[in-house]
Amino acid sequence: MLAAFSVAPTTAQSEDGSVSKAVAEAVRIVRDSGLPYETNSMFTTVEGEWDEVFAVIKQATDAVTAVAPRVSLVVKADIRPGYTNQLEEKVQRVEEQLRA
Protein backbone atom coordinates (compact mmCIF):
# COMPACT_ATOMS: atom_id res chain seq x y z
CA MET A 1 0.00 0.00 0.00
CA LEU A 2 0.92 3.61 -0.45
CA ALA A 3 -0.11 6.15 2.16
CA ALA A 4 0.39 9.86 1.70
CA PHE A 5 0.16 11.79 4.91
CA SER A 6 0.66 15.24 6.28
CA VAL A 7 1.06 15.87 9.98
CA ALA A 8 1.74 19.26 11.52
CA PRO A 9 0.98 21.39 14.55
CA THR A 10 -2.10 23.55 14.13
CA THR A 11 -0.21 26.47 15.66
CA ALA A 12 3.11 27.87 14.50
CA GLN A 13 6.24 27.18 16.49
CA SER A 14 8.03 30.35 15.43
CA GLU A 15 7.23 33.98 14.77
CA ASP A 16 7.34 33.47 11.00
CA GLY A 17 4.62 30.80 11.14
CA SER A 18 6.93 27.87 10.44
CA VAL A 19 6.12 24.36 11.61
CA SER A 20 9.22 22.84 9.98
CA LYS A 21 10.90 21.74 13.22
CA ALA A 22 7.99 19.48 14.23
CA VAL A 23 7.50 18.25 10.67
CA ALA A 24 11.21 17.39 10.45
CA GLU A 25 10.82 15.12 13.48
CA ALA A 26 7.95 13.32 11.77
CA VAL A 27 9.99 12.89 8.58
CA ARG A 28 12.93 11.60 10.63
CA ILE A 29 10.70 8.81 11.95
CA VAL A 30 9.65 7.90 8.41
CA ARG A 31 13.29 7.91 7.27
CA ASP A 32 14.39 5.77 10.20
CA SER A 33 11.60 3.24 9.53
CA GLY A 34 13.45 1.84 6.53
CA LEU A 35 10.29 1.88 4.42
CA PRO A 36 10.40 3.37 0.94
CA TYR A 37 9.17 6.97 1.06
CA GLU A 38 9.12 10.33 -0.69
CA THR A 39 8.65 13.72 0.88
CA ASN A 40 7.49 16.83 -0.94
CA SER A 41 6.31 20.25 0.19
CA MET A 42 2.87 18.99 1.23
CA PHE A 43 2.97 15.25 1.98
CA THR A 44 5.15 12.28 2.76
CA THR A 45 4.24 9.06 0.95
CA VAL A 46 5.24 5.77 2.53
CA GLU A 47 5.07 2.31 0.96
CA GLY A 48 4.67 -0.98 2.81
CA GLU A 49 2.18 -3.28 4.46
CA TRP A 50 -0.85 -1.82 6.24
CA ASP A 51 0.37 -2.40 9.80
CA GLU A 52 3.89 -1.12 9.23
CA VAL A 53 2.77 1.97 7.30
CA PHE A 54 0.18 2.98 9.85
CA ALA A 55 2.60 2.29 12.71
CA VAL A 56 4.99 4.81 11.13
CA ILE A 57 2.19 7.34 10.66
CA LYS A 58 1.22 6.93 14.32
CA GLN A 59 4.82 7.37 15.50
CA ALA A 60 5.22 10.47 13.34
CA THR A 61 1.98 11.89 14.71
CA ASP A 62 3.06 11.13 18.28
CA ALA A 63 6.32 13.02 17.66
CA VAL A 64 4.44 16.13 16.55
CA THR A 65 1.93 15.79 19.38
CA ALA A 66 4.84 15.77 21.84
CA VAL A 67 5.70 19.38 20.88
CA ALA A 68 2.28 20.81 20.06
CA PRO A 69 -1.00 21.01 21.96
CA ARG A 70 -3.02 20.37 18.80
CA VAL A 71 -2.11 18.48 15.61
CA SER A 72 -3.61 18.09 12.13
CA LEU A 73 -3.29 14.75 10.32
CA VAL A 74 -4.38 14.04 6.75
CA VAL A 75 -4.02 10.52 5.25
CA LYS A 76 -4.75 9.23 1.77
CA ALA A 77 -4.09 5.56 0.98
CA ASP A 78 -3.86 3.47 -2.18
CA ILE A 79 -4.50 -0.13 -1.19
CA ARG A 80 -3.62 -2.57 -3.97
CA PRO A 81 -2.74 -6.03 -2.63
CA GLY A 82 -0.02 -7.89 -4.49
CA TYR A 83 1.72 -4.79 -5.83
CA THR A 84 5.04 -3.45 -4.60
CA ASN A 85 7.39 -0.70 -5.80
CA GLN A 86 4.38 1.45 -6.61
CA LEU A 87 6.06 4.58 -5.28
CA GLU A 88 8.04 4.63 -8.52
CA GLU A 89 6.05 2.42 -10.89
CA LYS A 90 2.83 4.48 -10.69
CA VAL A 91 4.77 7.53 -11.82
CA GLN A 92 6.49 5.55 -14.59
CA ARG A 93 3.10 4.43 -15.96
CA VAL A 94 1.90 8.03 -16.13
CA GLU A 95 5.15 9.12 -17.82
CA GLU A 96 4.68 6.36 -20.41
CA GLN A 97 1.20 7.66 -21.18
CA LEU A 98 2.57 11.19 -21.58
CA ARG A 99 5.11 9.94 -24.15
CA ALA A 100 2.42 8.06 -26.14
UniProtKB/TrEMBL annotation:
Family listed: Belongs to the UPF0045 family.
Spans traversing the lipid bilayer: none
UniProt xrefs under Pfam families: Thiamine_BP
Amino acid composition bias (Polar residues), ranges on this chain: 8-17
Superkingdom in the source lineage: Bacteria
Segments for region (Disordered): 1-20
InterPro entries xref list: MTH1187/YkoF-like (IPR029756), Thiamine_BP (IPR002767), UPF0045_domain (IPR051614)
SUPFAM superfamilies xrefs: MTH1187/YkoF-like
Residues annotated as domain Thiamine-binding protein: 3-95
NCBIfam families: MTH1187 family thiamine-binding protein
Name of the protein described by the UniProt record: MTH1187 family thiamine-binding protein
